[in-house]
Design a protein that fits this description.
This protein starts with a helix and ends with a helix. Helix content is 40%, strand content 22%. A hairpin with a 2-residue loop joins strand 11 and strand 12. By secondary structure, it is of the alpha/beta class. The strands form 4 sheets. It has a 7-stranded mixed sheet, with helices on both faces.
Length: 554
């Protein structure tokens, strides 16, 4: 055991770690398995930054991991430019504020001018703050919609875009050079505290400017909103008030609580996250047209709508299609307008954009790539209209460069109000679009593994699909394989596309934030029945394939 690298690192932490972690470290002294679990690796940048379970150890989220990551960022910033300023934001998770302050102290010790929000605020407001304050870097402490035991560390560039691999690889290289304790500078000074309530008003002024092109009069909807104990509470409610919306909030979920006591996972993609809101709606004398939920850092937005006295949950793809249809038909489309989506997001928007001569751009999964693409196109004369991803992330306007649950909530209300005035339900509108453009159906298969050792399992599955993918699914034969690892462009990454006939596309990739393998199934045909049959058949075959390789049942 003494020669084990994990144990050697554990011994160092036992001696040098902050007092707040000492008892936790002492408690695992006689547990080799726990020591291995906590020290077998170091956290690294994924799709959503650095993310992990809170606790002592190199494979966990704690003040030493945060300090070291920040020191690496400071070193990298000084190396590539004369960076000397940053703004830091945080959500309502456990230790989010503490980690934000620790990040600030490290940056200040390295000569940075650092602003820190004095209250939790949404991730998109950090993107906006970086641009508004004209600082070099932004940091958000969040684990987005992960379970409550997680937290994370995300970095933003001076244009408000989340750092892409070009930058995170450089930051990671600097981090890896550092000892957790001896190479990290920490200041005892106070940062420049940013008044969050006052900054809300700055953000809302930009939102108001954006909405000048919309008909925001006579919004006759009743809306129920829940922030799921997260940072959307104040900004979203202020935005809805500005629109004059008749709305209420789920009182049991407006408390800012990182334990998220009323939900098991604060994820608005899942129906379970709406259970408390549904109970509230059932007891209320109001008949709500919409129930809107945002995740803890308010970059994702989900919605349920009332149908025959019950509430239906829309998918991320359906929400994106409905908002885009509203934008295409309710706003003045400028010359050189463009839309951006990820490759795993619905292709229904392709014919919608083609019909209006709107350029549609695609990126790898991760809104950082979307933000980067928006910035590139705008700087060359393009007019940004809308961007979205199937995982409930949406953006419009030109003042934020990350998915924004505040903007999405407002656009969702305006979209539903537009549909209501036409006496159309969301499903009726979606059916009309399908009849016109084709029956595009999608499903996401999530395969979740134990945190320790999941990387090897997922690597084996990816290797299998690359070398021996299913030769056919039903009557559809495999006609083309696109291995993104072999691409030499901006779509290069650990992603595999399998194309079957003219109707089916299967996209396989590891999650960048959780111990999961994700398989996206996308179908298109001229018949709803055909599309549904292909989708169901694909789901069964792909699940059996993964179970066979991983020797696990899902």
């Amino acid at each position: 055991m003494p020669n084990n690298p994990a144990y050697q690192e554990y011994e160092k932490w036992l001696q040098k770690a902050d007092e707040s972690l000492k008892e936790e470290l002492k408690a695992i002294k006689n547990s080799p398995e726990e020591i291995e679990k906590r020290f077998h690796k170091e956290l690294s940048f994924g799709t959503g930054g650095i993310r992990g379970i809170i606790g002592a150890g190199t494979a966990m989220m704690n003040i030493h991991v945060v300090r070291r990551a920040t020191q690496g960022l400071a070193n990298y910033g000084k190396k590539i430019s004369k960076a000397d300023s940053a703004v830091i934001c945080y959500d309502t998770r456990k230790f989010s504020r503490e980690f934000a302050v620790e990040s600030a102290k490290v940056l200040m010790a390295n000569g940075f001018r650092v602003y820190v929000f004095d209250e939790s605020r949404p991730t998109p407001m950090l993107s906006f703050a970086v641009r508004e304050l004209k600082v070099d870097w932004g940091i958000v402490i969040t684990a987005s919609h992960n379970p409550p035991q997680y937290n994370g560390f995300k970095v933003y560039l001076s244009n408000g875009v989340q750092a892409t691999p070009e930058f995170t690889n450089g930051i990671s290289a600097e981090i890896e050079k550092l000892d957790y304790f001896d190479d990290v500078k920490v200041s005892e000074s106070e940062p420049l505290w940013l008044n969050a309530d006052e900054f809300d008003e700055v953000y809302l002024k930009e939102l108001q400017k954006f909405l000048k092109g919309f008909n925001t009069d006579d919004v006759g909807l009743k809306v129920l909103y829940t922030p799921l104990h997260g940072s959307g509470f104040k900004p979203v409610s202020k935005a809805l008030k500005f629109l004059g919306i008749d709305f209420q909030m789920v009182d049991s979920q407006v408390t800012l609580d990182g334990a998220f006591p009323t939900v098991s996972r604060p994820n608005p993609e899942e129906r379970e996250a709406f259970e408390e809101a549904l109970k509230f709606a059932e007891k209320s004398t109001n008949s709500f047209d919409l129930i809107i939920a945002t995740d803890p850092d308010c970059d994702r937005m989900g919605v349920m709508y009332r149908k025959d006295e019950k509430y239906e949950l829309l998918t991320g793809n359906e929400i994106g299609v409905l908002i885009l249809d509203y934008l295409l038909n309710s706003t003045e489309l400028k010359e050189n307008s463009f839309v951006v989506k990820t490759i795993v997001t619905t292709d229904l928007v392709k014919p919608m954009c083609e019909e209006r001569d709107i350029e549609l751009l695609e990126t790898l999964t991760g809104f950082k790539f979307i933000g980067q693409k928006i910035e590139e196109k705008v700087s060359s004369g393009g007019n940004f209209l809308f961007a979205f991803e199937e995982s409930y992330g949406y953006l419009a306007g030109d003042f934020v460069r990350d998915k924004d649950g505040i903007i999405a909530s407002v656009l969702m209300v305006l979209t539903f109000n537009w549909l209501k005035k036409q006496d159309k339900s969301p499903k009726k509108k979606l059916n009309e679009l399908s009849e016109k453009y084709g029956y595009f159906k999608e499903i996401l298969l999530n395969f979740e593994f134990e945190p320790q050792g999941f990387e090897k399992i997922i690597q084996n599955i990816m290797r299998f699909f690359r070398n021996s993918p299913p030769e056919s699914i039903g009557s559809l034969a495999l006609t083309k394989t696109i291995d993104h690892l072999k691409l030499k462009n901006e779509l290069s990454g650990d992603v595999l596309q399998l194309i079957y006939g003219d109707n089916l596309r299967v996209i396989v990739r590891p999650s960048g934030t959780e111990p999961k393998l994700k398989i996206y199934v996308k179908v298109n045909s001229n018949s709803e029945k055909t599309s549904v049959e292909i989708l169901e058949n694909s789901k069964q075959i792909l699940r059996k394939t993964v179970e066979k390789i991983s020797l696990q049942k899902f």
